[in-house]
Design a protein that fits this description.
3 domains; 3-stranded mixed sheet; 7 strands; single chain; 176 residues
């Protein structure tokens, strides 16, 4: 229960700091930084950092005690924490998995931002009224309420991008 409380408390404190920063800096804090800070707040709401601190900083003493079979065991006393070799192996595998997952996530984010910047540099808004009317007709047919943003780029095929502010990117050499 302490772990859940710690997660809620740290996330809430960071969110309050975010709200204060938005009030203080008003328009000088860009939307990109607001998004990054809110992702950090979400990370603290979802990550049990108190549990990681317990695992990493207590430096458990390894002993060879077993119950039935070779199951991972961790025994905490007021003076120390004791683990067996199966627990150490499981902990090592979990930590390696976490590091690899974070590395893969960071790598994918870097690739995404590089692609996004490349596309944004070559994008221009479509002003052809025939294409805009065509898209508006189908937008109303499928009952999409917000306006669809249309761009053209030197991409090979059309695609959509964005979740909160979606857009359609069409190839520049595409005919009506």
């Amino acid at each position: 229960m302490n772990i859940i409380f710690t997660m809620c408390f740290t996330g809430s404190i960071l969110f309050l700091l975010y709200l204060i920063a938005v009030r203080i800096f008003k328009n000088s804090l860009s939307n990109r930084w607001k998004y990054i800070i809110l992702k950090l707040v979400l990370f603290f709401f979802l990550t049990p950092l108190g549990f990681l601190k317990l695992i990493l900083y207590q430096a458990p003493t390894q002993t060879d005690f077993k119950l039935a079979g070779n199951i991972p065991i961790m025994v905490s006393t007021p003076h120390s924490t004791y683990t067996n070799s199966a627990y150490q192996i499981n902990l090592t595998i979990v930590l390696i998995w976490i590091v690899m997952a974070i590395a893969a996530f960071v790598w994918q984010q870097l690739k995404y931002f590089r692609f996004k910047k490349l596309i944004q540099l070559s994008m221009t808004e479509i002003t052809d009224l025939d294409i805009i009317d065509y898209v508006d007709h189908y937008r109303q047919t499928v009952r999409i309420k917000r306006k669809v943003r249309l761009y053209q780029s030197n991409c090979i095929s059309p695609f959509t991008a964005g979740i909160l502010s979606p857009l359609i990117v069409l190839p520049a050499n595409l005919s009506s």
